[in-house]
Amino acid sequence: MCLACSVALAQAVYKWVDENGTVHYSDQPHPNAEKIHVKAVQTYKASAAETQAPGAPGATPSAAAGATYQGCAVMQPQDGQDFANISSLGIVVQTDPVLRPGDQIFVTLDGQGLNDGKPTGAQFNLSPVERGTHTVQAQVRRSDGTVACQTPPVTFNVHQASIANPANPVRPH
After folding, report:
1. Entry pTM
2. C-alpha to C-alpha distance for 127 and 31, rounded to whole angstroms
3. pLDDT tens profile 108-122
4. Are 173 and 94 in contact, with CB atoms under 8 Å apart?
């Protein structure tokens, strides 16, 4: 099958621009078409160590050591976001690439671990939410406790209606 695909890709390709300026490609000749050469497809065969999950039996230490995150971020709430009259808040953490088996996400709010210091997962619901300015941050930790990725801190504000203000438009008389 691979041989058939390479033969198909080696066939001629024609390129032309129509009266509207749209570029077209085809394997069939067309008036005013330019014949273009398409380079062969690059392929490679993965080694056995690359096809095994890090930490899997038989995986090499170099394969596990090379498994790093390109980044991680708190996607929700957004930095500087204001919330009014909320009783709960969803916290969403995203990793690139996706969270690997065995790795866990820990979220802190104002420097204190949430969920009694246990992993919170990529989505966590914070309830209740106190009024004021808060900072949320997350860490991705490996099974041995080492930090694989840490998000930048995200600051958000929570505004709650005051029952002490009689002219409160949220709770009119």
Report:
1. 0.56
2. 67
3. 999 998 888 788 888
4. no
